[in-house]
């Protein structure tokens, strides 16, 4: 049995060493061999670099087309009570007049 750690993403036991890191062949996750180099997940930040949290109010900084509709979220639209989620679009919210949406944090600033 190998003394290599299991993958932190998928718990696979088939990890291997590649230079100074471990690699999981099942999910493709790579992480550092050195325990002191543990990388914390980056907090979600707005366009200005301010950290965002659940319940914050943000302002849209760019006109955003709504996919599948002719609607547009205009610059300056305030969005209240956001929820942070995992994924490419990391803000889940409800916009007045449009409804539930997912936004990218790079297109908003903290109000």
TrEMBL record:
Domain (Protein YjdM C-terminal) spans 44-111
InterPro entries from the xrefs? Answer: YjdM, YjdM_C, YjdM_N
Protein YjdM N-terminal domain location is: 4-32
Q: From the UniProt record, list the coiled-coil ranges.
A: none
- Per the UniProt record, one Pfam family is Zn_Ribbon_YjdM
Q: Please give the family membership noted in the entry.
A: Belongs to the YjdM family.
**What protein name applies here?**
Alkylphosphonate utilization protein
Organism encoding this protein:
Pseudohalioglobus lutimaris
